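Question: Hello, beginner here. Any chance you could explain the protein record under this note? Any guidance would be welcome.
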Amino acid sequence: MVPEQSIAVSLVSGTCSGLVCSLLFQPLDYIKTQLQCSHLKSLRGLLQTTNGILYEGVIRGGWWTGLRPSLAKTIPGVTCYFVTLSQMQKISGKDIGPLSAVVMGISARTTTVVLMQPLTLIKTRYEVIMHQKLN
């Protein structure tokens, strides 16, 4: 049986998880966004974009461009996922088998994506605008 936890524990866990993920992976997310906006889809484009961002990171702090919108998207998203999943587990109230766990995970993730999609769009547009201002 799944140990019962309060919503507060899910909120704190989701917030901490979202914060750590955003801080660790923002540079990679920024590189990905710039590649998606670039007309260069080759390995050369990847290397040039990465080198440019590494240079911007050292000189102008470019590694963390878009961190605030990323935090504004990721922290509520992961928190929503943790809370939704824990509430589904609480409602089921029984031993959860592998198939039930997969269905609950998919359902919680789908709910989170639908709710957080507008923030994802805002974050991506912010990163593109900031990149255009830097160049």
User: Anything to note?
Assistant: The mean pLDDT is 79. Residues 9 and 107 are 20 Å apart (CA to CA). The helical segments are 7-37, 43-60, 67-92, 98-134. The chain is about 85% helix and 0% strand.
